Predict the structure.
Amino acid sequence: MKPDMFRQPVYILVGLGFPAEVRSVMDAYRHLLEWPASMRDNAHSIALKACGAALRGEIEAETARGLFAAFADIHNLLAPDTNVIAASRLPCSATGIRMCDEETDDTRHAAAGRRQCEAMGPPFLV
């Protein structure tokens, strides 16, 4: 593993809310450089300096990761846990949540539940 790679990526929301994976100090550094100048604050400055120091080998990548994650958290950029999103969008029969009021056999209930799940739209993340 490269010395600037994170053990675990940081998932952030970019653009119109699309999740992005930040896997290395260089990725974090690029995101920080693209942050609008009018929105830069102390958290941004600290994270940017930490990423620069990690790229020069002065501090460990995990230290920079922690400060980048803190910056992302302060600015509400952290993406929600993808496992939670995926689980919340499973078909009704998989979650065990009864989606209809019918007291009928399982086949009809499952079909009614699927129709209600499908009406909620496609899943955000698969």
Observations:
- Residues 82-119 form one domain.
- The beta strands are 5-14, 18-24.
- The radius of gyration is 21 Å.
